[in-house]
Amino acid sequence: MPRILITGAAGFLGSHLCDRFIREGYEVVGMDNLITGDLRNLEHLFPLKQFTFYNKDVSTFIHVPGPLDYILHFASPASPIDYLKIPIQTLKVGSLGTHNCLGLAKAKKARILVASTSEVYGDPTVHPQTEEYWGNVNPVGPRGVYDEAKRFQEAMTMAYHTYHGLETRIIRIFNTYGPRMRLNDGRVLPAFIGQALRGEDLTVFGKGNQTRSFCYVDDLVEGIYRLLHCDYPYPVNIGNPDEITILQFAEEIIKLTGTKQKIVFKDLPKDDPTQRRPDITKAKKILGWEPKVSRAEGLKITYAAFKALPKEVLYKQEHRDFEGYIRK
Ligand code: UDP
Asked: What is the pLDDT of residues 140-167, one digit of tens each?
């Protein structure tokens, strides 16, 4: 049975990855410090003997007993509000956390895939974004802590590949959505759905003419699975090229939820990218991958999952106490 370490395991993407690799017959070791992760996302895996969990900050020295075949480094705050609230931890997990994961991969002779992001392109002047584009990032703006940590992460990962011959993979993830996103993390989809469910107006930032391209989580996980198992060490974009303005997106959510609330306009956050769409030519060619789930289908599933959340989660996200399960 192959053994894989997944950092950020209690997060949105990390927990979906744990599920997928358990389903594929892997032994999964999850790691998370629970700053932005939530153990409710992993609750169903704790009874399985193929699953273990460490409540651990990957930015400090990490030790995992036993062999490891693969590492997926997915630990990081990933919403603009999170990295505004915890900028230093964001910088540390992308830099020191990545270094620790690479060191562990080297020690275990494991293949490692690191989660990079479309944020490495900043506010892009090339559209759609190809992997060859170097980006347009403001290092000292509010997003700099995330963007630059991820750019450092890519550089560090390539250095381990070229200098140590480590087997490395780099995915650049574009906006992804689905069940288990944190309802109050400030990202646009949970923000709009949360507002609709609470009977609040939908807050569109700026004029809403900025664009994003939203990928359903199952499609992303499939892309990650394929990338991990191919032999391509350079960055690969994974995302859904179906681009939409944020205003159109708000209108879609109003239609989907049937809310009677209206759209209100708020100031555009500093350095908010004006456009974003992945060029996925490389993923198609190298991985034979392209997204399968339309936004209409994906949003329906996501809305159903959010609607089923208990009231206290809708109004306040609280961590439940799973201390008994956690190996410190
Ligand atoms: N946004 C918005 N209203 C909100 C939250 C976000 O209009 O309540 C906008 C935000 O300004 C950005 C887009 O939605 O242009 C996507 O924001 P998100 O935080 O989800 O992620 P980003 O793609 O900017 O990293």
From this structure: 999 999 999 999 999 999 999 999 999 9
